[in-house]
Amino acid sequence: MSRDTTLLHPEVQAIIPKFLEECKKQGLIVKVTDTVRTKQEQDDLYAQGRTKPGNIVTNVKYPYSNHNWGMAFDICRNDGKGDYNDSDGWFAKVGAVAVKLGLEWGGNWKGFTDKPHFELTKYGDTNTLAKKYGTPENFKKTWKEVEKYMFVERNYSYNGKVKSFKVINEKGENYIKLR
User: Fold this and answer.
1) pLDDT of residue 171 exceeding 90
2) Nearest of 161, 37, 22, 178 to residue 100 by alpha carbon
């Protein structure tokens, strides 16, 4: 499983730095542990606790996890208190930060809660994505259009020096913050 956030949908990529920074401001040290999953990785996780040893960690096969579509990531604590220790309500605090930024938190799910899980559901659930695009690979081909308005490079000249920035705000509008 990948920890590479650059494999995620551009809008998820844009949220993660804000998420990590806001968590840090609140003393919540977070580490991204799982981003995009291949078919084999998803199916292996699904087998865990069923046909392979271990606890059940997912209820969906490929392609019905938002990890397969680049729309989800998992986290753990990174503060020396135990990766998944939640005795102090740590995940609920982190979940509240994510929800404020427009992510869905797996800790709010009914039935099968998944406290380390966060996803962007703006484009619909995985059934909707599968009906519209067929495969995660086809969906990923549409990301170039999103990137056109999200990650535009801008040049800024100050005192005769030109600097280049890739910029975005929460609305997908590009800007350069000067101070």
Assistant:
1) no
2) 22
Contacts 24+ apart (CB under 8 A), 11-14: 11/120, 11/122, 11/146, 11/150, 11/172, 12/70, 12/71, 12/72, 12/73, 12/120, 14/150, 14/168
Output the pLDDT for position 29: 96
Output the pTM of the full model.
0.82
Tally the residues of the chain. Answer: 179
Nearest to 35 by CA among 65, 9, 8, 62: 8
Q: Which residue has the tokens 């000067």?
A: 178
The CA distance from 98 to 90, in Å, is: 13
Which two three-digit tokens encode residue 105?
Answer: 């938190």
